[in-house]
Amino acid sequence: MKEISAKEVQQRIENGEQLNLIDVREVDEVQAGHIPGITNIPLGLLEFRSHELDKNKPYIMVCRSGGRSGQATHYLQSQGFDVTNMTGGMMSWEGKVE
């Protein structure tokens, strides 16, 4: 499984890179604070909403601590997607939050 640190994600965003971030936390968790520009697909709905994703784009999976996004990364990888897990999740995030 590919992994990236929260710090690396933050640096890439600050360098102006357009990243495809998928936050797999529940809606109320995301409303409490999230990385600007994310797409929220709760882990429990990922299987039903994976058709919304493009297999030609790389995605970075985000959750609270890295556990659920790790599960999501494994699942999407098995479906043929290019996915990377953000280790440490939002607990490690020091960048901007909406």
Automatic annotation (TrEMBL):
Name the domain of life: Bacteria
Q: Which CDD domains match?
A: RHOD
InterPro entries attached here? Answer: GlpE_sulfurtransferase, Rhodanese-like_dom, Rhodanese-like_dom_sf
Looking at the record, the residues that make up the Rhodanese domain are 15-98
Q: What Pfam families does this protein's entry cite? A: Rhodanese (PF00581)
What is the recorded name of this protein?
Answer: Rhodanese-like domain-containing protein
Lineage per the UniProt record: Bacteria, Bacillati, Bacillota, Bacilli, Bacillales
